[in-house]
Amino acid sequence: MVVQNSSDFMMKKTISESNRDAWNQALKYHQKARNNSLQIGFKNPEFTTLNRDCDEILIIKLKNIGLSGKTIAQIPCNNGRELLSLMHFGSKEGLGFDISDIAISEAKELAEISKLNVKFERVDILEIDNKYNSYFDFIYISEGSLQWFPDLNDYFSVVSRLLKKDGKILIFEIHPFAYFFENGFDIKKGNFEKLTSYFNKDPYNYKNGLDYVGGVEYESKECYWFMHKISNIISAILQNDIEIKEFNEYNVEMANNNSIKFLDKFPLSYIIVGKKK
Hints:
Blueprint: H1 6-34, H2 37-41, H3 55-65, E1 71-74, H4 81-86, E2 93-98, H5 101-114, E3 118-122, E4 136-141, H6 152-162, E5 163-174, E6 204-205, E7 224-225, H7 230-238, E8 242-250, E9 269-276
Parallel strand pairs: 1-2, 1-4, 2-3, 4-5
Antiparallel strand pairs: 5-9, 6-7, 8-9
């Protein structure tokens, strides 16, 4: 257990609540852009959102792990669309956790429509109830998750305590290299001074909104994300009693960043498969 001083705790809590407000704002734009397509889609028992080009890699890994009869979670889960899609691999129960009120409200709506055995809880991820300790066979961590946590040791300590012994995690995330291009870099302009530093530990602030669905720019409420090096990610996993079984990097783009599409020589995504000791 990590003992935090009060100022450190308050700083992290302030960041969490700011990001909560920003994501509540962003989800309204996402819902408008999707125009009830998820609500319509999940009426079909075979509907899945794991249908992007990059998901072909993910599906192979999931089949190798085997989710049939397993209790699974996604942390964080956004509006639940991915977790509901994962249930098609035969899981018996799913739980999704997210800090956004609006995301969880939509997730519960989609779960009801789909009639799948999935529940969702609105919670600060670092405060997930101890009743879920050693509860899950498998935890999925998807793109755009890790950057919102100031301290990855805090995050993976939660993931570890929720996993059963021999439980597995799969992380399918945007590669930190892809975040080089988050702050206005445009390869056509060659404005290299806009590249994000790989080594900066301070938070970055999104100012033009988080609507990666519709692409609408708006003045975002204050929110913060963090550049985490691959070495920091791996260290945080290992320090929390999770063995890394696989680590693969890909030049598959996940972030809908137009600049990145010209940079296929960079690693743009990665998968880590881990197992709880």
